[in-house]
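Record type: ASSEMBLY
Status: queued
Input:
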Amino acid sequence: MATHAASASREVPGEPTKMSTSLVDTASAAIQGFGPINRIHQHLCAFHFYGDDMTRQVEAHHYCAHQNEEVRQCLIYDGPDTKARLIGLEYIVSENLFLTLPDEEKRLWHSHEYEVKSGALFMPGIPGPIQRQDMEKVVKTYGKVFHFWQVDKGHTLPLGLPQVMMALTRDGQLYDHLKADVEKRHGVSFEEEREKRAYMKGLEHGIHPLANGGGKGVKLVIRETDCKPPQQQQEHHETSNHSVPRVFV
Amino acid sequence: MASPGAPMSVKQSLLDKGAQLMQSLKPIGQMQQHACTFAFHSHDMSRQIEAHHYVARVNQDILQCVVYDSDEPEARLIGMEYIVSDRIFETLDEDEQKLWHSHAYEVKSALWVSPRIPEVLAKLELANFTKIYGKFWCTWQIDRGDVLPLGVPSLMISAQAVDVAQVDQEKIMRRDDKYNMSIDALKQGRVEMAEPEWINPNADHWKQAGKGFVLEIEPTEMNAFAPFP
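Status: finished
Output:
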């Protein structure tokens, strides 16, 4: 059974913020320029599931900035409020740029066509007609997501390894209760929106067979390796094959 | 170096502006501090990067940081760092602790700075920073020349008081020039800052083991109840 991110424990360990600390924080925010942060211009809500486990589904709130017309970079939080935890990031690129990626890389990326067309990806608080202007673009993109904090497991700290995440690609994948919950909280209807987005054209070349894990599951494993300090590199070039595969969490 | 892709269209800029005005973006508003520091790839310490952290406080013991390659509006999002107090760190299991790095040297030697903040103010908070631990995943290896984010995240480690973990003078000078600061003066001012009595030896794993970590993709089956993709 998937645990919904929003219903998972929000009890992050740690002391409440001290008054002196929050004064420093507030002063800093006022004095420092927040260049890249000020570029963040939109909030998208969607679902991710783990690259090797569709049964673990997470509601993901994306806060995105455009690098240019074809590249977006997004921060992913587990909710839309001030207490939200930063759980990962997503890069979004145009179909053209995706096609330039090495084949090995492509399987880490997922298509957005179904997510957009089904109405499951939406911009909270934005009127449909305006939202759809941007969705017409998102529908033709690919995304690459890593999560670092497995809130659906009830982790109160960001433990373990980064997780490659995938997204919805067809009907029947998203848990009904997660759908109903997000629709209620944000006052949206995926079904109604699906009809209104029916006109949208997806990827020019269709969904690439190597995207979405290439049809397989994807997970990351960690292994120890020599750390190659700078002078060692100059002195001798032996590479060690002694690295031991390690299993984490 | 700019990312590949067409420049922003007027229509997209307008859409973005509109969304920014209509949506509340509350989590983003929690970022309260900008810190500049340096980090090394754990699997290849000959590669070091300048990192700009935008820091949000979860509570007194936990910080969540978004990391960019500069503080310019067009900066690239290159990773994330989580920071926890020593109190929390001691509760983690050993394998987990090996992924984290200490910050004492980085702070005391003024590699970690708060640009544009008077040092007097910055020090109030940095005093706590000598005891904290960080876990930093780099997701866009621009130092490798990647024009798009490629591959799997790279675990990063902090500068330490040993030769192999020293930041290039050139990088430091460029930073000092940009922010009109002097690492020597700052370092001097931080001499009195208390050093932690104990740094858990499981952190900074490379120092003990001479080994870094790499992630690899393992093809596997998708645990699924519906067809995928």
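Annotation: DSSP finds nine helices and nine strands in chain A.
Annotation: Chain A touches chain B through 119 residues (CB under 8 Å).
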